[in-house]
TrEMBL record, chain A:
The chain crosses the membrane at residues 20-49, 61-82, 109-135, 147-163, 198-224, 259-281, 319-343, 355-378, 390-408, 414-444, 465-488. It comes from Sporosarcina highlanderae. It comes from the Bacteria. InterPro entries: DUF112_TM. This is Tripartite tricarboxylate transporter permease. PANTHER family: TRICARBOXYLIC TRANSPORT PROTEIN. Keywords: Membrane, Transmembrane, Transmembrane helix. Residues 20-439 form the DUF112 domain.
TrEMBL record, chain B:
Residues 9-148 form the DUF1468 domain. Keywords: Membrane, Transmembrane, Transmembrane helix. It comes from Sporosarcina highlanderae. This is Tripartite tricarboxylate transporter TctB family protein. The keyword rRNA processing does not apply. It comes from the Bacteria.
Amino acid sequence: MGVMDGILEGAKVAFSFQGILFVLMGVFLGTIIGMLPGLGPITAIGVMIPISYGMDPNMALVMMAGIYYGAIFGGSTSSILLNAPGVAGTVATAFDGYPMAQQGKAGKALAIAAVSSFVGGTVGVIFLMLFAPLLASVAISFGPPEYFALMLLALTAIASLSEGSTIKALISGTLGFMVAMIGIDGQTGTSRFTFGSASLLSGIDFLVIALGIFALAEVFKLIITRNESDSGPNKNIGSIRITKSEMKEMSGPMSRQSVLGFLIGVLPGAGATIASFIAYITEKKIAKNPEEFGKGSIKGLTAPETANNAATSGAFVPLLSLGIPGSGTTAVLLGALMVMGIQPGPMLFTEKPDLFWGVIISMYIGNIFLLILNLPLIPYISKLLNIPRPMLISLVTIFCLIGVYGISFNTFDLYLLLAFGIIGYLLRLVSFPAAPFILAFILGEMIEQSVRKSLTISNGSFMIFLERPITLAFLIITVLSLALPPLLGMRKKIKSIE
Amino acid sequence: MLSSQNKKVSLFLIVLGVVFVIMSVRLPKYPLVPVDADAVPIILGCLLIFLSILLFFIKDEPKDGEDSGQSEPFFNADRKMILLFGGLILLYIIFLEWLGFLLTTALFIFTSTFALGYKKHVTNIVVAIAIPIAFYYLFNYVLKISLPKGILPF
């Protein structure tokens, strides 16, 4: 089947009544959950997984993808109105969005955010359409050694690119990997670290980890911040009209950052957060009047909003074409797909073109819905920000508990959920990033299996990792991504001493 | 010697790594496979020990306000609240299958919202009754995922 037939198949899925309904549902829920401070796309996707069980996998993925980019879209609303980013990817949005809101131009800021998100998202999807099949056609020749090296690269990249200490991120990843080892080993049937418990034989369900380490830990954090005064969004948001000269000012950053944002999103380990910060910094550097940045600059708001949405589309490239998530959120998406019995990877493109193209095409529709939702309706939706925190905390907790109970019908998993919630909270307390943990947990088993399969192929010789050019290249990049930053840091120190 | 947070965390992780390696080594052996089930866990345990040793020698990052200051008691008001909330979740799990989803959830929402300092009790009661019913209906009748019925007849 040719590419055109595939696209047609996908269009059938995306434009079906159900397809449109679920993408609308996804972006709407995503917008709402993304807007609530403290709750990000991982939590949003996590709580939706139980609801998607009985669904057609095509529709479930269309909805989950909608939740992901919807959450990034929605996060900008609370950044602008409250200076309290709902998701990490919209932190940079608050730099100029919040000052604009304080100047009484909240409506304009929201409109600018909506338009630039739309442009970033749409350009991202166009690139996704071009790149993903290309990458899939290369990846089809990948064997276990290539996959091993690529997944290792994804893990080390997220560690070296995440905020804060690289060592802490690596430890967090190692811990996640260790948790993935629990259960029966796929090759030999040995039960590992189960302490004789039958409930642990099949390993820990990824939903327990995702909802525990992320959602429940976020709830614990919300308990501490629940009393912080938020006055609620300003009632008067002003006009949402964007003038022609403002549009002109936006066009530069929009065109540059949609491309840059997408490319950063494709990279393993880097996602919307890094893309938005890099976008903000580069626009500030090349701007004629950088002193306006941080005081309500239109360019300063356009850049991160374009980039974070473009990066979200970019993150789907490795997920759909290689089956390898590059970030915490796409790792949870991958987990959700596997629950539904779908293994994304290069074969997805040829074997399930309806799914592959259906999701991509639905993203165009989703972005249009988001624009429609965000422009006129945002003042009304933002009233949700007034939900009292104590109520929000109780309800999100219930969501997590039912979500886990709904897959296992076993209270043992609920105790595990509580335990991982506490672990996640402690990790945050000692400033260990949580994203490497979940990525390593999801990739852990795959990495182990690919190493052992490779060594079975080579009869135990490690040369298999060095003889294959692609594998070797990935491994070299992995080593460089770990070794370069500290080396450069040392060089700087030596120079400053001299 | 254990003044810094990194050092404390690092020692804990080193112990964890050692225990993990010991447990891995004691896994049963299969002679027929080139790489046995214990290989990757042993590598992971050693990696954790190595990284934790590096962490031991890294200075703490300066804290931004939150839980700084040695004088504050370990169980300050916030942490007490988290413990209390964790306890409520524990009670929820214990009672869920026995009392049933509707009752346990209603009690949990009301109690925890109240404990977290929400003052409008009437709103709280309305939400605590409406939300469990809505969820119960959605899961049992729309999604066909049956939640525990408990002591109630429906």
